[in-house]
Amino acid sequence: MTDETVHYPYRLRLEFLSPSEAAFYRVLTGLVRENFFINAKVSLSDIFFVARPNENVQFSNKLLRKNVDFLLLNCDTLEPSLAIELDFPKQVAHGTVDSFIDAVCNAAGLPLLHITVQHPYDLYELTLQIKNMAAKNSGNNLPAHSDFSPVCPRCGITMVLRFDKDGPHRGQKYYGCLNFPECQEIVAV
Predict the structure, then answer these.
(1) Sheet holding 173-177: strands in order across?
(2) Contact 109/140 with Cβ under 8 angstroms?
(3) Which of 126, 159, 169, 187 has the most CB atoms at less than 10 Å from its CB?
């Protein structure tokens, strides 16, 4: 069977954002367009990675098929500054997915703001909330306790912490590529 005879069952969604998400997006655009780029429905696996992925496979799987409603990127650095989740008024308590997203953002040091869907929005209050939450992340998106592992600049995969066994730097720590010996890229700690 060739690709020419296959009839793919894919269709284009008519609405990418729900009416509530679209309304909030329009308000948000007016408030932050000078300082942030707005991304909608961003997958958690595009925002976060799992440290020591070989040891933490179950945590990688938990990121799949989950997203945040909006992600604000700093216009200058393109670094994630703030995640926003829309909550509906009847949603009294957050579900397990929301609790997981809260925990992931907290562990990685990305501020997460829950906004209750309303009509109209209090622009002054919303501006203050966004400004205060984004300020928590300015200049530092990693918590102090983080076991951060950088991404290899050559291969694009997570690096592992290693120790120099001999030579002039004996005993010193560095990050080495998981593809060693094919990739011998290193990053200083």
Answers:
(1) 159-163, 173-177, 186-188
(2) yes
(3) 159
